[in-house]
């Protein structure tokens, strides 16, 4: 039996891949129908380079999706390190809203492409970030204790239905303010 060895990826190939993902993310946030050729051109690579990294449109969409989720989950501890917990929570929600705008044009494709293993992996990292943010807010008293991260994520599902653009951003901001206000502790009347 022969042992297969994977070749290390060259630095320029890693940079090309990262640049393609970033350009695709921006292109898909404008239009879910962005062409791969336009993405390659904006990334400064030829179509062959794009197709070497992403043989199909679907593989590129999944790479953008995974990249966004990884960044989103990693952003929670960074925000907690630099902001009071409630502010960090709200800033993370803003980031999630931006992510929702990107996903808005791709939701049908992502739903069809996301298998249970990938969905579970992504769900777990997002729930982990929400849990860390909620627990930090509970610890400093800025939200009521006992908020369930799964419930909060379910409430935030509206973000995937808000359209992109300035009107969508304003609407998402207002709705996120309502979510945060609903998590705050309150004194009973009377």
TrEMBL record:
UniProt KW Transcription regulation keyword: yes
InterPro entries linked to this entry: Homeodomain-like_sf, HTH-type_TetR-like_transc_reg, HTH_TetR, Tet_transcr_reg_TetR-rel_C_sf, TetR_SbtR-like_C
Keywords for this protein: DNA-binding, Transcription, Transcription regulation
A Pfam family annotated for this UniProt entry: TetR_C_43
Domain HTH tetR-type: 14-72
Keyword flag DNA-binding: yes
DNA-binding region range list: 35-54
Protein name: TetR/AcrR family transcriptional regulator
């Amino acid at each position: 039996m022969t042992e297969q060895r994977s070749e290390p990826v060259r630095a320029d190939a890693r940079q090309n891949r990262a640049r393609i993902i970033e350009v695709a993310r921006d292109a898909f946030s404008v239009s879910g129908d962005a062409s791969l050729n336009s993405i390659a051109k904006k990334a400064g690579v030829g179509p062959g380079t794009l197709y070497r990294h992403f043989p199909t449109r679907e593989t590129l969409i999944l790479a953008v999706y995974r990249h966004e989720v990884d960044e989103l989950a990693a952003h929670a501890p960074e925000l907690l390190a630099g902001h009071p917990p409630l502010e960090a929570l709200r800033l993370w929600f803003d980031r999630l809203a931006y992510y929702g705008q990107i996903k808005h044009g791709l939701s049908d494709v992502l739903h069809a492409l996301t298998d249970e293993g990938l969905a579970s992996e992504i769900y777990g990292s997002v729930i982990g970030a929400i849990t860390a943010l909620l627990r930090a807010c509970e610890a400093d008293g800025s939200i009521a204790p006992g908020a369930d991260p799964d419930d909060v994520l379910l409430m935030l599902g509206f973000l995937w239905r808000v359209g992109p653009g300035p009107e969508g951003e304003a609407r998402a901001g207002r709705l996120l303010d309502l979510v945060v206000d609903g998590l705050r502790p309150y004194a009973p009347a009377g």
